[in-house]
Amino acid sequence: MHTYSQKLNSNDIARHAGVSQATVSRVLSGNSNVREETRQRVLEVIEKLNYRPNAFAQAMKTRLSGTVGVVVSRITNPIVPEVLLHLGDELTARGKRMVVWNTDTEGEDGVLNAIRQRVIDGLIFTAAGHQSAALEAAQQTGMPIACINRHIDGASFNQFACSNLEGARTMADYLIAAGRKRIAIINGPLDRSTLADREAGLRQGLHHAGIELPDNYYASSDFAHNNFRELAIEMMSQPCPPDAIACGNDVIAFAVMCGLKAAGAKVPDDIWVTGFDGIEMSGWDVFDITTMKQPLDAMASATVEALISTIENSEAEPQLVRFGTELIIRGTTANTSFPQQPPTKE
Fold this sequence. Notes:
single chain; Rossmann fold; 13 helices
């Protein structure tokens, strides 16, 4: 292994790889406009010579820091680490660093300072709405932005989410086709676009089948495990309890199952439960939840690719892409089969 990497520069790498210095720069910046064969050759030389580019020199030359910020909330929600894992892998593969802000504990001050000081090249939001000061500041400064697992109507930046409404409609169709007649919904706060769309899809599916959702079969709450647990207990205390509960996401479904157990209801013998997201925990034996799975890996790859394209070319057209979901049937619905179409990308 080369032990004098600090003395090397990109011209040395270019000479050893038999390419131009500009090609080396494109590889280091994660630019997709490089043939894969050439990229691999450059990366092999970089590894062989133990080359480490000077981040400060790169920033001075390109006016880019090589760092992308990711804004999250409710980091304890199991889907957030999964999203961060996929984003981190994609950014690292493109030679970028990732810095994360958890707005629940830190607020948005850290993000706002990073935007003002231009210490990041772009921002990925996993949770944001029109009321986000950081989102507004990024837009005002022209900083490249992308949203993953979220969408904001009328926004003029890259947005990548799954087809929440259509996926929820499929879940409703599945429950109805399987003979469920008293279907309830337990959801989280509707200021989140994902949950609002999923509830709309469930309601549409029920309405299309001629099933109206009575008030006592619907409940929503802010995110707190015990809140959803208590809502499930209350539903089961009714004279005619539901025979299925469709939940806004997998984490809500976990809490609902705890409530059903406390109420003495057996899943799936007495009642079915479904989630949404397809996080890893949903497949654990203790949960085994039927759910709609999001393609988080594909969503993360598309998000990072689009953001970097915008960083490199401010004139790049923003994208709004919705990815298809996949119905994963498990034990909470007695592994009852249902014909379905393969997931599609809209």
